[in-house]
User: Fold Fic family protein from Pseudomonas pohangensis.
Amino acid sequence: MRLPESPPDVSNILPRGGPVRFLELLKNANPLPNGRYLHWDELRRRPAPAGMTHEEWWLTVSIPRSSLRQTLPLLDKTGQPFVFALPAPLLIDLHHIDRDAAGRIRSSSATPPTEDSQRYLIGSLIEEAITSSQLEGAATTRKVAAAMLRSGRKPHDQHEQMIFNNFRAMEHLRSMRDVRLTPEHVLELHRILTEDTLDDPLDAGRLRLSDEVQVIDTRDNTVLHDPPSHTELAERLQRLCDFANADEDSEPFVHPVLRAILLHFMIGYDHPFADGNGRTARALFYWSMARSGYWLMEYTSISHILRKAPARYMKAYLYTETDSNDTTYFLLHQLKTMRKAIAALHEYVERKSQEQKDTERLLAASSSLRGRFNHRQVALLTHALRNTGEAYRVDAHQRSHNVVYQTARNDLLDLEGLGLLEKTKQGNAFLFFAPANLRERLLNLSRTTP
Assistant:
């Protein structure tokens, strides 16, 4: 990966044209060239305004930005503070997230029933567990991983173990939403995330003991970041927990969404663990969002979006490090990621709602079948109509809908008794399969049921 070029030193640009030229340039001062919060590495590749060099253009951008920046109680490895600004694009993104992430799940028709919300939540936890692990090298396919999590079977290899741990951690976070974060909480979260996946098992749940850790682009082995010394990690983690727990009266005021993103950023920057830092960072982001009442983020997967463009994710860190510790670059990147994740959730809900309506319409066409199936059975039939030959287990159905085992078992046996599923034995458990002619069987059942 090509490293971004650091901005020129503004103090070296100032004397070149004297005070008259400087005042002339200030007339065109604008922190948002082309309406965007551009880094120098992006700006220098664009045509400069007429009569300006690229360095002078940067001067007209960086000076007004410096007046927007606020200092954070978070430090880089040299002891200099990180800063952030609130440019218009960032405020617009925050407005959308305030509106969409603390409200209800939207659908163009009606809000999904409460029982469906549980199914959407389980699905999103599975998606985040898989893609967050895949971002850090897990090679298991999504289908195999999802089947493992839904069935509850034990992981077969280290890749599956990473995904299994991630799912456990996401569930663990739901029990932490009302606690004040401590270093012990972070260490426990890391232990859950990395158990049985590290070269040295003792590294799970403890801060790294050496400085033999670098952030590297594995595609070409470019060194992207050298984290702070391991001797500073305990103090830095306590400082981060204090920041995570700060209330609205703290100075400066940091919007709760920005606070959650900055937790993510700092774990990535400090790299306090031998491995599993990215997973820990993203998990703490979810904890902070839930603690601040942005409950809908539980239903989204930011890792699914990040995995589509990992280079942009890395650049957001690098832009901050190379431009005066300005975290605005990372904040803007993550806000865009969140908005995409929320939009993906609404599209998913819309699609699933429509699929379920189509199935319900098929069932409602027959007066004999109308009201015959509960919402869990309708959801399973909807899935089965699109996935011929799919296998269903009682324990997987139980987890998907958060019901007791007997309820899940009765659901499947009822469908099998009607000829809509076929049953076979696998070890000590039953497997239920969707027949290839399920639609025809439903139609025949509607004609024959009294």
